[in-house]
Known about the structure:
Layout: E1 6-13, H1 19-35, E2 39-42, H2 49-58, E3 60-63, E4 75-78, H3 86-93, E5 97-100, H4 104-118, E6 122-126, H5 132-138, E7 146-149, H6 152-157, E8 166-170, H7 176-189, H8 203-215, E9 221-225, H9 231-242, E10 248-251, E11 267-272, H10 278-289, E12 293-300, H11 312-318
Parallel strand pairs: 1-11, 1-12, 2-3, 2-4, 4-5, 6-7, 6-8, 9-10, 9-11
Amino acid sequence: MNAKPKLEIRLCAPRGFCAGVDRAIQIVEEALVRFGAPVYVRHEIVHNRYVVEALKAKGAVFVEELEDIPETGQPVIFSAHGVPKNVPEAARARNLTILDATCPLVSKVHKEAVLHHRRGRHIVLVGHAGHPEVEGTMGQLADGAVTLVETVADAKGFQPPNPERLAWITQTTLSIDDTADIIAVLRQRFPAIVGPHKDDICYATTNRQEAVKAVAPRVDRMIVVGAPNSSNSQRLREVAERAGCARAILIQRAVDIAWDEFSGIGSLGITAGASAPEALVDEVIEAFAARYDINVELVRTANEDVTFMLPRSLRDAVA
Length: 319
């Protein structure tokens, strides 16, 4: 019997669930305990199919828009990515019970946008068009109050209404390096532009990217466990290749592994996006253990102890 080839696995830490995702999932689970099934969730609570299917099995019903919710006394939950302000307004008009699972770090960006607008500044939002977080942030203000900038080229071509009255904010799940390049262009062109007191890119995004940077140059391949529509997971894949890994591959589950991609490798890095549960990482490691003689090394670049409180109505129920 042929011996399995040896494989060094370098497991990034931190990885996987962040405090905002953990809170959002807990909100759905506690709402099901308190109100019973069904509870309605507008859009995916987080960008992970495994998580969404698990919550569906417990009685959560996912809808695209409020119009898809029948007349009900059951609660509607807004996803961790945040929503435009007209969504809770419409929910209140229908007397729906609202539970807001928006990540507090996204809510912070919303508040920054509103404050800058009140102070007469035009807002530049660095982010990706079509992402629900971007739609939610831009939707805090009237059309035209916020300009979306996605690239350095966009920043170079941006023509503001008043160069002396500008502020910038960002999506929370961007590449740290890409964002820094865009902000540098904005600051060079518009020295009076005002930024946030504390960076908008969240602690979890930053920590996961730094862990990938530490591992990527030391491995032949990198796996990012996450969903294709997860911004932070896609950024981890990009960061890995930029940091020196020959190939980084985003997969949702172990069943998605294309084994030809890993032929002949001696080392593998593994990380997970902020909405990917640890069970899926374990599943991937087990899949490699079936084919390789593995040794797992944990590479930790930061410790995380951040937690976010549940909405008061659910805190009271839990207490």
